[in-house]
Write a structure and sequence with these properties.
The structure is a single chain. Helices cover 8% and strands 39% of the residues. With 271 residues, the chain is mainly beta. A hairpin with a 7-residue loop joins strand 8 and strand 9. It contains two helices and 16 strands. The structure holds calcium ion (3 copies). The site of one calcium ion has 8 residues, from helix 2.
């Protein structure tokens, strides 16, 4: 997990605890009222897909985690990763609320199965980001300034390109006291959505941005060392601690090694 010094509010949140040789993942860094349980957390050993590090969250309807770290934030930025599925329903996957443990919604993001839709203070922003594929990791970053503006950027699905954006040059007055991540409301159908790498800051000017796709060994560059880290995971020698899911499809396979090779050949760099 990337560590930020940009007026950090919360960085994420799924902690790996080595316990007698085994790996346990916990949600204890989410300090609010949570309905996700141990069964919703884990990593490759639990067949739970992760984007970064070795732990993530897999939730179905009604399961979520809450971060009450925000105080009364008029300026708020958050970025997280969601692993999409063909849900057959619409779920609210993120909510920033006006009071702890959810509160009345100030910011909301819905996943419809093919689009991400955004609201601030109950008002829909733009026409959403469409063309969202199932079974892909997407990075979603939102920025909100009460009484001023809202914007969101979506990227992922194995490309460095921006998938879509929405923005509004006006915004309501609500302030943010908590963040809720998961299947906050609505339904995921029979699917479980994945979540990882949540980070939030008060920065008005500095984007959190995406993690480095394919930096499997978490050293900030794309080299053959990442191919080695991927090989070690593919051969069950050790888990990659960076972002091994280079093609962002929710599985670690030889396709990710190919993806890393292509990024090495393209001299890809990490931001
Ligand atoms: Ca709070
Ligand atoms: Ca690397
Ligand atoms: Ca993959």
């Amino acid at each position: 997990m990337k560590i930020s010094t940009r007026t950090l509010l919360a960085a994420a949140l799924l902690v790996a605890l080595p316990t007698s040789g085994a790996l346990a993942c916990t949600i204890t860094n989410w300090n609010g009222t949570n309905t996700a349980t141990a069964a919703n957390t884990g990593g490759p050993a639990q067949s739970i897909a992760r984007y970064s590090g070795v732990c993530a969250l897999a939730v179905d309807s009604g399961k979520y985690v809450v971060d009450n770290t925000p105080g009364t934030e008029g300026t708020y930025r958050a970025r997280f990763y969601v692993l999409t599925k063909a849900t057959g329903g619409t779920a609210t996957i993120f909510r920033a609320g006006a009071s702890d443990n959810g509160g009345s919604p100030v910011l909301e993001i819905d996943y419809t199965g093919s689009a991400f839709n955004f609201r601030q203070n109950g008002t829909t922003v733009g026409s959403g980001v469409t063309g969202i594929q199932a079974n892909k990791w997407y990075s979603i970053e939102v920025f909100y300034k009460a009484g001023a503006s809202f914007s969101a950027t979506v990227g992922g699905a194995g490309s460095d390109a921006v998938v879509g954006t929405v923005s509004s040059a006006t915004a309501g007055a609500g302030t943010i006291a908590s963040a809720v991540l998961g299947a906050v409301a609505g339904t995921t159908g029979s699917a479980s959505l994945g979540f990882d790498a949540f980070e939030s800051t008060r920065s008005e000017t500095t984007a959190i941005g995406r993690l480095c796709r394919g930096d499997a060994n978490a050293n900030g560059t794309i080299t053959i060392g990442d191919r080695t880290a991927l090989n070690n995971e593919l051969m069950s020698v050790s888990l990659a601690t960076g972002q091994p899911d280079c093609n962002e499809d929710g599985n670690i396979t030889v396709g990710d090694r190919t993806c890393v090779n292509n990024r090495i050949l393209a001299s890809a760099t990490c931001n």
